[in-house]
Amino acid sequence: MAWTNYQKFLALLMVVTGSINTIATKWADKLQSKNSEGKVVEFNHPFLQACSMFLGELSCLILFKILVCTGRQSNRTYDKDNQTLNSGSFNPLIFLAPALCDLTATSTMYIGLNLTYASSFQMLRGAVIVFTGLLSVAFLDKHMKRYEWLGIFIVIIGLICVGISDVINPDASSNLSQNSIITGDLLIVMAQIIVATQMVVEEKFITKHNVPPLLGVGWEGLFGFVTLCILLVPMYYIKVGNSVFNNPGGRLEDALDAFTQISNNWRVALALTGTVVSIAFFNFAGLSVTKEMSATTRMVLDSVRTFTVWIFSLIVSWQKFHWLQLFGFIILLCGMCLYNDVILRPLWIKIRARYAKDTETEPLLRNTDEESSSPLIKSGSTSINT
């Protein structure tokens, strides 16, 4: 079935905005601006960047309310147990736990992104499949099929290939040391444990309420934004040195210094705006793709987003090309397809079914040929002709 123009637009919007989200965040990390001490340094404020991400998610709540007011979105949810419709009768606090997981994971990943390549950041996020599968078995009593276990194993191989590529081929032009890259990669992979926890929590406690996805993303954005903004205050007084962060006085996060840098360089402001806007449209496009097409299509488009970020990083010389990283990406993609039971396994089943059908019809044709060429028929045929 061919895609409609609207579906094509949604797919393009998801890939573009998803790519811009990672690219804009990495671009902000690489930009330099005068800080509160009068020094020109790189913009290194991952927690404030996480705030901008949550602000983008929060805008989904505003968008949902607009759609409800215009009649394009129902504010009612479906209760599967009682088989009734209700007007959003759920406690919004159920989104607090997932929001805290998202807050921790996003902040950790943004720290890792500052220490490694944008493409590696995008590829290593595939580790979420490994931890989601394991946690689902442990806490959701999910019975994993053999192809899912195989997919997890292949994903691990792909992750190892990407990690090894980063370690053995550090790019001197990127100003990232080998230790920095290793630390960044490990932080991104470790953050996927928290992301997987978030998914398990959402599946166990939230999906039974069948909350409209756009509303769910909005509530998580609201809780994440408010909580992180509050945490910025104690972060200002926590001294961690300048080994990872580059804030005046060695602070864990200095929001005042961040705003000073933003005001001194319009490109930093543009990059943060790009994060906010792109995450809002990315969530909208992603949810719409799942609704209009399928979750499988969304997964494939997300892989295209990873490839787009990698190609962009090569074009703007944020990193150099390495065959091992490409190989790791392909292995990761194969593992994801196996785990999600898309493309590879269905194609293999179709090929086997067609082969079995051919082998069934082949003896039939052979028997027919043998009967037509038997001596009895031949003699009968001769007598008739005579």
Automatic annotation (TrEMBL):
Q: How does it sit in the membrane?
A: Multi-pass membrane protein
Q: Which top-rank group of organisms is this from?
A: Eukaryota
- TM region(s), chain numbering: 47-68, 89-111, 123-140, 147-168, 180-201, 213-238, 266-287, 299-318, 324-344
Q: Where is the composition biased (Polar residues)?
A: 373-386
Keywords, ordered alphabetically? Membrane, Transmembrane, Transmembrane helix, Transport
InterPro entries linked: EmrE-like (IPR037185), SLC35_F1/F2/F6 (IPR009262), UCP036436 (IPR012404)
Single GO term (MF): transmembrane transporter activity
GO CC annotations, alphabetized: membrane
Protein name as it appears in the record: Solute carrier family 35 member F6
- Origin species, per record, is Trichonephila clavata
The lineage, from the top, is:
Eukaryota, Metazoa, Ecdysozoa, Arthropoda, Chelicerata
